[in-house]
Specification:
globular, nine-stranded mixed beta sheet, D-Maltodextrin-Binding Protein, domain 2, 9 strands, binds D-malate, alpha/beta, 12 helices
Length: 324
């Protein structure tokens, strides 16, 4: 009996300590890890969200770029960080696809994180350097097939969205190209604009400005409907590659074991960011929008990661692309 009373008191003490910690949270700056290079699409989304979250939380949310290995280096860093809410991860669909793409990962994407909420779903675009000799998607496919030994396809490494979309593209046209991996599609875009690589599949958050400015050519958008910010761009379905369908969802995570009330506080700041007019306006310019509030929850994100791992597993296994 005395043992039971002691156990109950101990649990109450731990709970009280937890909620006192949450009340004073955050008392110092928070790091938001982006698992890709600066200047790319994940970085762009993260910086907009981090700025608004800083205002809500009254502490700086500082973006740190940990690029490499298709996003898995940055994700590993957060999986192993202290579970105190001060190290977060803003990652995209690669959180789910890497579970199958990598034979070995130093973390488990389904169980080593505490989801804070979904952020946005970003369409992708098939783009090429300005000088590329194809005026529409059909011509692009014909040219790529005829010149498969010469055409290069940029991506941000195995596990990146650009890798996933490029994989679907090559499968759909039945042609293997030489891929050129970068630490993010920010630096890959610099090389595409400079003409050092030929083709890329990348998110509208990285391609819209370059397409509108005429620095690159665009052929199709990978979502079932057109994107308002690029109204002349056909969908892959209408342009002849219906199998290249992908929207890049982004989520915000803390390490597993982060106290629930800290996760809740971070979720409140995320929800405020998704309602923020500056964030919404910039997202719209870049061809995307925040997810609805009912999708921006820890429960939805945790379940979604698991469901997406299962959804992509057979597709990736079928394509036969793996990394060690
Ligand atoms: C990707 O291809 O996964 C992203 O574009 C990477 C990035 O944000 O640079």
């Amino acid at each position: 009996m005395r043992l039971k009373t002691f156990a109950v008191a101990a649990v109450a003490l731990v709970a009280a300590a937890g909620s006192a910690f949450a009340q004073s949270f955050p008392s110092r700056p928070i790091t938001m890890v982006v698992p890709f290079a600066a200047g790319g699409p994940t970085d762009t989304v993260a910086r907009l969200v981090a700025q608004s979250m800083s205002e809500t939380l009254g502490q700086q949310v500082v973006v740190e770029n940990v690029g490499g290995a298709g996003g898995t280096l940055g994700a590993a860093r957060v999986a192993k960080a202290d579970a105190d809410g001060y190290t977060l991860l803003l990652h995209h669909i690669g959180q789910a696809t890497s579970a199958t793409l990598y034979r070995k990962l130093p973390y488990n994407p389904a169980t080593d994180f505490a989801g804070i909420g979904l952020v946005t779903d970003v369409p992708m675009t098939i783009v090429a350097k300005k000088e590329f000799p194809a005026k529409d998607l059909k011509e692009l496919v014909a040219y790529v097939k005829a010149n498969a030994d010469k055409v290069t396809l940029a991506n941000a490494g195995v596990g990146a969205a650009s890798h996933l979309c490029g994989m679907l593209f090559m499968k759909e046209i039945g042609t293997q190209l030489t891929t050129v991996p970068y630490k993010g599609t920010g630096p890959a875009m610099n090389d595409l604009v400079g003409g050092q690589v030929d083709v890329m599949c990348d998110q509208t958050t990285n391609t819209t400005g370059q397409i509108k400015g005429g620095a690159i050519k665009a052929y199709a958008v990978t979502t079932p409907t057109k994107v308002a910010s690029l109204p002349d761009l056909p969908t892959t379905k209408d342009a002849g590659l219906p199998g290249v369908q992908v929207a890049v969802w982004h989520g915000l995570y803390a390490p597993k074991g982060t106290p629930a009330d800290v996760v809740q506080k971070l979720n409140g700041a995320l929800l405020a960011a998704l309602k923020n007019n500056t964030v919404k306006a910039r997202f719209a310019e870049l061809g995307t929008e925040p997810v609805s509030a009912d999708r921006a929850t820890p429960q939805v994100l945790d379940a979604f990661v698991k469901a997406e791992i299962e959804r992509w597993r057979p597709i990736i296994q079928d394509a036969g692309v793996f990394a060690d």
